[in-house]
Design a protein that fits this description.
about 350 residues, alpha+beta, Phosphatase 2c, domain 1, 7-stranded mixed sheet, about 45% helix, elongated
Amino acid sequence: MIRVRGRVRSLGLPIAWGAAGVAYKLLCPLAQESGLQARIVTSAVFFAVGTALVLHVRHSLVRELRQVRRVAGAAQRALLRPLPSRIDGLDVAAAQVSAERGAAVGGDLYEVVATEQGVRAVMGDVRGHGIGAFGTVAAVLGCFREAAHDEQDLDGVLRRLDRALARHLRQEHPAGAAEEFVTLLLVEIRPDGEMLALNCGHPWPYLLSGVRAEQLAPGDPHPPLGLFPLPPVLPTVGLGRLEPDEALFLFTDGAQDARDARGRFFPLATALSSAVAEGPLFPQAVVARISTALRHHTRGTPPDDIALLVLRNGRPAHLGVRGTGRTATTSPQPTTPL
């Protein structure tokens, strides 16, 4: 009832302007004359009525668009929850942006949780972007937040994610999903700094150390989730050891595939090396510098969704303490928008 009343009130002004125009045409003697002056006045009246109607419609559309963006932004913040600035000894920072101008939701996903096995992180990229990818992001993230704690190995986590994605696609596309998939990178950082990973069609992360930015490439990734069944055996891949004060940089392919007006790809490795060399290796600073460089390179309009995630080992040189949950030692930090 409230919504209907709002609609009626929103139509009140256009109806009044329309009625004024009709009344002028039917009742005003000047509107009945055919002289030049009468025609000019009549045209001015109807021009004013038309302009008022157009402005009113535009104002209504802008107001509804702002409301949709507020709702979408709230949904995105609830789904991609702001990460704590510190999780089980790791300093954390993240950023995301949608490829659709003005859109508040995108097709990228990330999460970091502290488990009995160590800190586990996921970085993923859903095919497509915007509202259409939102449901798939929710299905994958919701499953990860449970499986990361329940499963002993990353193998089990990935198989849970694969089953969750398959269920979601069957529900959303009962007639059959055509090439719906998600690229995904799972990383586990154990208390001693050892890093393990499983990769399904996703870019490998960068290791940031001192003034170097080196992309880790331990092997060929598996196909993206949703395209083919997972193999019977899924051995984890070692990424080496994350030493104190070193950082791991995870990203979606929108960062390295971003092009400028001349078609040149964004030099991600160079930008990371510059960001590391410019100052202390703080995750928030690295994310901010790469975000700024990406905005400058694409003039603020990247062709694809982009997500960035930095995990820095802030633990002392000896073994850290095992975490039992996703808790922060400092207040949560909001996700940094690009």
